[in-house]
Amino acid sequence: MRNVSKEKWARWIATSFGLGFIPVAPGTFGAAGGLAVALLLSFIVDSYFIQQWILAVLTVAAYFAGVWSCSVLYKDWGKDPSKVVIDETVGFWISIFMLPVSWQYYLAAFVLFRFFDIAKPLGIRKIDKMNNAHSVMLDDVAAGVIANILIQIFLYVHV
Predict the structure, then answer these.
(1) Among 40, 58, 103, 130, which one is most buried in terms of CB atoms within 10 A?
(2) Which residues, other chains included, contact 101 with Cβ-Cβ below 8 Å and sequence gap of 6+?
(3) How far apart are CA 64 and CA 73, in angstroms?
(4) Where are the domains of the chain?
């Protein structure tokens, strides 16, 4: 007999609490969910340092929860269905890590992250083609890292 409670939690985690069930552009909504959490965090927590620590803990926890949920749902949902968007949420959080809290930087991170997530250049496609729960998450981690590095370089050159 299947563990319904375990699968229910896995569905909620994998879909970033239901965002993955949105029929149009679920990945974009998964990243937008990450944006909403980051903005909420910036309003609730005054200290930038504490915001970044919370964001880091959320990112690591969501990464491993995403790997777990993908492994639980693999049999029913397949390798990387579009409704699995926790990877986009995590990837977006990585793209904004240690950036100034500003709508301009968050928008740039969002656009760059989605571009790299969709286009999958620079070896991201190879990561995506691996067939395990980590690869579902890691291609978006890589897209987030590349987006973050580009914005950090921009900040370094222009500040």
Answers:
(1) 58
(2) 42, 48, 51
(3) 14
(4) 4-158
